[in-house]
Amino acid sequence: MKKIRLSRIKKIGCALFTFLSFSFFMTGQSAINHPLGEVSDGASQTISYKGSRNYKFTERSDLRLYQNGRYVGLQSKIVSAFIIPTWTDKGLVYEGDFYVDQDTNRNKSQVALGIHEAIPSSFIINSDGNLTMLVDNGYPSFRSFPAFTSRKIKKGDIWEAKAMRAVDPLSKGIITKMPIYVRYTYTGDDNYNGEPVYLITAEWATRYNMGGTTMYVDWGGDKELNYAQGSHKATIIVSKATGTALVIRDTVDETFVYKDGNKYQFKGTISLFTEYPPAIDRSRLIAALKKMDLLDDEEAEKLLQRPVAKDDAATAGGLPQETGSAAGKGSPDNFNDDSWEPINTSEWVSGGNPDKDTKSKTDRLKKKIEDHQAKSQQASKPAAPISVDNTEAGIRLTIQNLQFKADSAELLPGEEKRLDQIAEILRLAEGAQFLIEGHTASTGYEAGEMKLSKERADSIAAALSTRGIGSERFICKGSGGKKPIASNDTAEGKALNRRVEITILE
């Protein structure tokens, strides 16, 4: 087989999660503006991503596990994520909260409740189209997969491209990255759920630390992993209208050999899906919020429309993609280059102007608290109201000054009314998932703040689940004191920073 030069390949896929990265590059509006139409046997067409939209990504593994040739059981694992693209003054940032459902989970109490622990991931796409991981906790596990060639293709055409895969075969919590070379074939056209689609096959071999010209070792990965080998054959369904990889089904036969001599072989399938969240009836939510005196007419009007990330670069022809380069350094053709490692950067604040947005939100929230306190005649220390604002992820409810026991996630008596109100609102968002994010003031003890904020998010989820909201609908995360909305130099500012935010994801 004649090998196609990588310089001719324009990587525009991103992880299984390309989705992950780029399912969002596809929206119904873009489909109307840029229809691709049917491709006949003799016609040729360039496949590309278009658009911008929040989406849910799911990776399901059903693999038979053999240890040293002996069958030991079925490994079932589901990894899901809600991905939100946001344009900032530094470029397009994709933020995702992944969560894992499998047989073994570290937090048994939360598994019993069905509450999901969020695993953050984010990456930035620069104006030149490069993708750089900002927060890398192992997800997405496939990067730059699938990838499409920049040239026009017809049925039967073949192209090759590089991708990266992050693995943790034994669920040790240690991620190992492995580069892969993928061979794609455009095999035909079909319809999927009434939508015209391309059918593509993909094949690649697992070759980790196997010697030869393709030798690669991730020095930041599992040092006990000696080598890995195997084969993958995947079928991919890609939307003609938008370029979304709607479904990927990967047939796996892969072996991981560890330094202690144990061999673990996995056989089965990994299935990947991109889905869009259900439409939320915002008018019902707004009516309930106004009835609770949480919105005025002006605020209600602003909530009618969900803000969507705008992608000026993409509409101008730029197709974001992941390369082997980190922040433009190094060569994507060199798998041994350190540029394949993720860049750890400080946490970003989403939005066009972080300083302006933060001040505006703080001012609104302070006014809400002052107004509520002025009206309240029933308590000497009334709880702050529920603040409501519009985000690209969905409608966000901010609960200020929740009363917990000191340095604890145990709610004190007196919060029942606000929790009842929130449960009433969430029940109106049928089919939606909810992101619960805990925040603390910053006191200099980062690890403790992160732990406490996560535990308080879990506590709120558990309280809401007793009010009729399915616990499996909650994704919980803690941000500690990393996302302040006010100064931590004053008692008032610290009080504002101690909050729990609940976003109705859409």
The SS-based structural class is alpha+beta
Number of strands: 18
How would you describe the oligomerization state of the chains in this entry?
single chain
General shape? globular
The spatial strand order of the largest sheet comes to 6-5-3-2-1-13-12-11-10-9-8-7
Number of helices: 10
Q: State the low-pLDDT regions, or none.
A: 1-41, 104-113, 125-130, 311-356, 372-384
The overall pLDDT, averaged over residues, is: 75
Head-to-tail CA distance between termini: 46 Å
Radius of gyration: 24 Å
- Count of structural domains: 2
* Estimated helix fraction: 10-25%
For the largest beta-sheet, the strand count, sense and barrel status come to: 12 strands, antiparallel
Blueprint (SSEs and pairs):
Layout (H helix, E strand, L loop, with lengths): L17 H5 L5 H6 L21 E13 L2 E19 L2 E12 L5 H6 L2 E2 L1 E7 L5 E5 L6 E2 L14 E10 L8 E17 L2 E14 L16 E15 L5 E14 L4 E13 L6 H10 L5 H7 L8 H4 L38 H22 L10 E6 L2 E7 L15 H12 L6 E6 L6 H20 L8 E5 L12 H7 L1 E7 L1
Parallel strand pairs: 4-17, 16-17
Antiparallel strand pairs: 1-2, 1-13, 2-3, 3-5, 5-6, 7-8, 8-9, 9-10, 10-11, 11-12, 12-13, 14-15, 15-18, 16-18
Please supply descriptive tags for the structure shown above.
alpha+beta; 60s Ribosomal Protein L30, Chain: A; 12-stranded antiparallel beta sheet; 20% helix; disordered N terminus
Give an overview of the whole structure.
- With 506 residues, this protein is of the alpha+beta class.
- It starts with 17 loop residues before the first helix and ends with a strand.
- Strand 2 (70-88) and strand 3 (91-102) form a beta hairpin.
- Helices cover 20% and strands 34% of the residues.
- The strands form two sheets. The chain has a twelve-stranded antiparallel beta sheet. The protein has a six-stranded mixed beta sheet with strand order 4-17-16-18-15-14, with helices on both faces.
- It has two domains: 6-275, no CATH class; 282-308 and 353-505, OmpA-like domain (60s Ribosomal Protein L30, Chain: A, 2-Layer Sandwich), CATH 3.30.1330.
- The protein has helices spanning 18-22, 28-33, 108-113, 282-291, 297-303, 312-315, 354-375, 416-427, 446-465, 491-497; strands at residues 55-67, 70-88, 91-102, 116-117, 119-125, 131-135, 142-143, 158-167, 176-192, 195-208, 225-239, 245-258, 263-275, 386-391, 394-400, 434-439, 474-478, 499-505.
- It contains ten helices and 18 strands.
